[in-house]
Amino acid sequence: MTDNPTVLTEGLQKSYGGKRALVGLDLRVDAGTVHGVLGPNGAGKTTAVRILSTLLRPDGGQARVLGLDVVRQADALRARIGLTGQYAAVDERLTGLENLEMFGRLYRLRSRVARARAVELLERFELAESAGRQARTYSGGMRRRLDLAASLIINPAVLFLDEPTTGLDPRSRSAMWRVIADLVRDGTTVLLTTQYLEEADRLAHRISVVDGGRVIARGTPNELKSQVGGDRLDIVVGGDAAEDVQAARAVLARFGSGAATADGETRRVSVPVPGASVLSDVVRGLDELGVPISDVALHRPSLDDVFLAMTGRASAGSETPPARAGGDGRGDTGNPDDRDDRDDRDDRDDRDDKDDRDDKDDKDDKDMVTI
Ligand SMILES: Nc1ncnc2c1ncn2[C@@H]1O[C@H](COP(=O)(O)OP(=O)(O)O)[C@@H](O)[C@H]1O
Ligand SMILES: [Mg+2]
Question: Potential cystine with 267: which of 198, 237, 304, 324 (Cβ 3.0-4.6 Å)?
Fold first, then answer.
């Protein structure tokens, strides 16, 4: 930690009409690090990013980026930051090269400099071969890379990435992760919002978990996971005796590192455990009591577990998916339709075609933990 954080917000507030999007958000991002802002749809991530990148004025609280006040010194700040929004800002009708040249010109680079920078970035993001093709022919992953390239035209000291991989297929997602990791290696400070535990885990030095417009937990990925007790042990009790489920719960509570939960209907009993070593103790304990077991599973905590532990309720995205209702949906996808509906209300209505694209791309999300 340093005394001059690159991003510092204190008590940041923002409402849209009567809807409170941020209710006192405190964030701190140290120079040269990746900070993950992790939270479900509607948590306030995009609102925070838009305020920090000077696109939106807060109603209350303070926000400084690179020591500059995001409201009073917005112009000076704009020249030093990059933003990749939740939806691609590229012009579909222009080629990849033309798009980047256009951004260079927007930043008032001389045309020759803008072109040289565009060519360099296209190389760097493995888009050189497609430089002459209209962006509309690009895949989702290529668009995101082009978008990211556009936000790097001026070599920003701080980069804001709003859900940079939502809707990307796994391969494009890994490519994006590599690109982001490279940027940080070169000294860029990155604030990244995501709904994906795996993404935050992979990229972020520190994470702020946001829900309901405020930070509900913060720490390194490992610290957050250890807050929910390391691994999680799930047992499904066999037979149909209700007392067996309660007996199993008592055994799991004895060996677990946190509260054990039991679902009488699915007969699933679950507890955070300090490590795999307790597995044999638990099985022996159940055996001694004659409790039948039909399934045993040990897994890393999902973001659902983090949320459950931190908020005492399931995360927003887990209310509707059928997989969870079936009792085995832990860590499965959230509801992309909710996401699209909600995002439609955002004040980014200049891209009419985004919904088609996102509906399609969301289908690739199934492999990720979505909250
Ligand atoms: N332009 C807007 N008008 C009205 N409500 C909005 C607008 N943008 C966001 N909201 C609401 O503010 C809350 C936070 O939204 P947002 O910052 O987009 O969250 P996230 O990016 O984490 O999904 C949500 O409840 C959302 O519905
Ligand atoms: Mg958002």
Answer: 237
* Domain match, 236 and 216 both: no
Residue 244 sits in a domain whose CATH number is 3.30.70.100
Pairing of strands 214-219, 206-211: antiparallel
pLDDT of amino acid 308: 65
Residue 132 Cα to ligand 2 middle (Å)? 31
Residue 47 CA: nearest ligand 1 atom is 17
pTM surpassing 0.70?
yes
Residue 1 has pLDDT above 60, yes or no: no
- From the CA of 281, how far away is ligand 2's center (Å)? 44
By residue range, what is the domain housing residue 260? 232-303
Q: How far is the CA of 34 from the centre of ligand 2 (A)?
A: 18
Percent of the chain's residues with pLDDT above 70: 79
Q: Which of 226, 245, 280 is at the close of a domain? A: 226
**Residue bearing the CA closest to ligand 1, atom 12:** 21
**Could you identify the atom of ligand 1 that is nearest to the CA of residue 14?**
12
Does the pLDDT of residue 337 top 60, yes or no? no
Phi, psi dihedral angles at 5 (to 5 degrees): -60, 150
Predicted local confidence at residue 127, as pLDDT: 94
Q: Is residue 349 predicted with pLDDT exceeding 90?
A: no
Closest CA to 159 of 250, 31, 63, 256: 31
DSSP label at residue 289: H
Angle at 121 between CA 120 and CA 127, to 5 degrees: 105
Q: pLDDT tens, 178-205? A: 889 988 998 999 999 998 878 888 899 9
Q: Does one domain contain both 57 and 201?
A: yes
Q: Is 297 left (phi over 0), alpha (psi -120 to 50) or beta?
A: beta
Spatial CA neighbour of 55 closest among 35, 29, 85: 85
Residue list, ligand 1 pocket, CB within 6 Å = 16, 19, 21, 39, 41-47, 342, 345-347
Q: Using alpha carbons only, how large is the chain's radius of gyration in Å?
A: 23
**Per residue in 270-300, pLDDT tens?**
998 887 888 999 999 999 999 999 999 988 7
Interval between CA 68 and ligand 2 midpoint (Å): 24
Ligand 1 pocket mutation, candidates 16, 27, 191, 195, criterion most atoms within 8 A of CB? 16
